[in-house]
Amino acid sequence: MSEELKSLSCVRRYPGNPVLTSADVPYRSDLVFNAGVIPWRGGYAMIFRNDYGATKAEWEAGKRFDGTNIGLAFSEDGIRWTVEAEPVFDLSGADGGEIGRAYDPRLTEIDGQIYMCFAVDTRHGLRGAIAKTDDLHHFEILSMTVPDNRNIVLFPEKIGGKFVRLERPMPVYSRGRDRFDIWLSDSPDLVYWGNSRLVSGVEDYPYANDKIGPGAPPVKTDRGWLVITHAVDLDRSRGKNGWEDKWQKRYCTGAMLLDLEDPSKVLGVCKEPLLAPETDYETKDGFRTNAIFATGAVPMPDGTLRIYYGAADTVIALAEAKIDDLVDACLR
Ligand code: BMA
Hints:
By secondary structure, the protein is mostly beta strands. The chain is about 5% helix and about 45% strand. It is globular and about 55 Å long. Beta-D-mannopyranose binds next to loops. Beta-D-mannopyranose (BMA) binds next to loops.
């Protein structure tokens, strides 16, 4: 699948992109990407992944990253961000060294309580985790999946009296290769999860041949839950695709619409990517170029959806579209 892909015409990138780079971070930072964003005290709060310890030149000379932590930024307009003096979350070396790092945060508010979902690399596999926070500085971990599962996003309200999440297990053993799909589970308390069901398979996405995953927390619309996803295609004939020598994947942003009452039921999947890598900050010079990884979606009062995404695993960018246009695109 090496053909060019175009972004949906109803999706507009912010002309001043990127909205956050490592130059905005007052502590060690080389790559900032994959951010959760929520409205916060009349403005916005962003929680983002920060990888540090190697510039591009240092990487090319053989140095590797020293670590990953999670940073916090605030903004009045959702565009210009001020980063807090210190990172707010770092699990590196926790649990007696079992945990390598926490990364890829998403934020959801449910009944006035804020939750952060994130991925955790451990010595025994990749896990998805949910924590709660009152102030975005202190976090209490409520649950972690068994390996291998990540890309957890929480629905912003209970459905049928249960908390509901989307997630993306990675069943390599049974399927023989990457072929990863989107699943859903529910819970009475955010700790115990079950009633797991397949929602959408990689075959539903014409621009994916490798894996798909939940992107940002679902957005409620009168026609269904709008879910921003990622969709990956792998082409072994691609050459070096970023600083990282072996990187040959392309990550696009997709979308699907789920039934309001039974969100395991797919009403439609957008057959074209919302965002395909096109701009310089998505396709050139980044750590892993051609990677767009949307993890934040903020509905605005005028019916616009702001989509925050990691571009080339290097910077954070913003795009927007009318929610109605995105729902139409899922149902076409
Ligand atoms: C995924 C995750 C993300 C990353 C993306 C593209 O598998 O590791 O953190 O942004 O790959 O490299």
